[in-house]
Amino acid sequence: MIAIIDYDAGNIKSVEKALLYLGQETAASRDPDTILGADGVVLPGVGAFGDAMGKLESYGLVPVIRQYVRSGKPFLGICLGLQLLFESSEESPGVEGLGILRGKILRLPGETGLKIPHIGWNDLKFPRPGRLFRGIEEGAYVYFVHSYYLKAEDGGIVTATSEYGASIHASVEQDNVFACQFHPEKSSDVGLKILRNFIEVTEEA
Q: Radius of gyration over alpha carbons of the chain, in Å?
């Protein structure tokens, strides 16, 4: 079973629907026992960094997430869920992220003339192999909706990049922690393959 952390994020239902389509048993929950007992966990997210951290804290989910990650079982952050795994964001100065991974979330540069937020399909480049992208060719297109992007402190964890006025660290993998800035649940067949790969990781763990 894969648990989807329910902290009132906007894309919970779409993630759940995609996983169910792939035949995966899921549970959208904020119950610690359900989350800690899952074979894999997804932290979705749409919205503002500071508001999201406030929700995670108010529901008592911050220590639960950290405990789950320490267990070594697979964990996937999606969109804002990726950003929350890091230390801080320019969107919410003074608000600390989960700090599970090292790096900062920066605002996409507006002086390039590109529209902010970045909404639409962009291609991926793979600077190093990532288990989420097994069987996916470089140049595959995925769907983004964001105004802020990740710059990881350690480039060695970056498994996918994309260009939109800046070099976006679009996906990372460190041990049992995976994260995507884009929305696999909205990225057609490529996105379903990414989610299927995550399911396979949970089965291998």
A: 15
